[in-house]
Design brief:
Blueprint (H helix, E strand, L loop, with lengths): L2 E4 L4 E6 L4 E6 L10 E4 L8 E7 L4 E6 L4 E6 L10 E4 L17 E3 L4 E3 L3
Antiparallel strand pairs: 1-2, 2-3, 3-4, 5-6, 6-7, 7-8, 9-10
Length: 119
């Protein structure tokens, strides 16, 4: 669904809604190539990922989830079935909540010290 370029480390991250995963490719890859690593599994909290963003300054990867109405944060180099460093929710876990809708992007507003997720 979403993609993010990490020009510093020459990687592209891809949010894969169909397999509840994030795939990482070399920036200069071409053709039918396998990802260099994948974040996927029951510990990741990735469920219906729509957006992905690489934060080089804080060495983190952000993933927005449509199905869980959450954003999950990993170490930039994470791979496998790894738990996120933190989870952002719009309501306590397990409670009915207004969803993020279509969280196709995420950004940080340093002037207001806020995380922005367009709906």
């Amino acid at each position: 669904m979403g993609m993010s370029l990490d020009a510093t480390h020459d990687e592209i991250a891809v949010a894969n809604y169909g397999t509840n995963s994030v795939l990482f490719f070399r920036r200069d890859a071409s053709g039918n190539v396998a990802p260099v690593r994948v974040i996927k599994g029951n510990r990741t909290g990735i469920v219906g990922p729509m957006g992905v963003a690489i934060d080089v300054k804080n060495d983190e990867l952000w993933v927005t989830n449509y199905s869980e109405h959450t954003a999950v944060v990993f170490a930039r180099t994470a791979g496998g079935n790894v738990a996120p460093k933190r989870v952002l929710r719009n309501a306590p876990a397990g409670t009915p909540a207004v969803g993020f809708g279509n969280p196709g992007a995420i950004a940080y507003d340093s002037k207001r010290d806020q995380i922005l997720v367009p709906n």
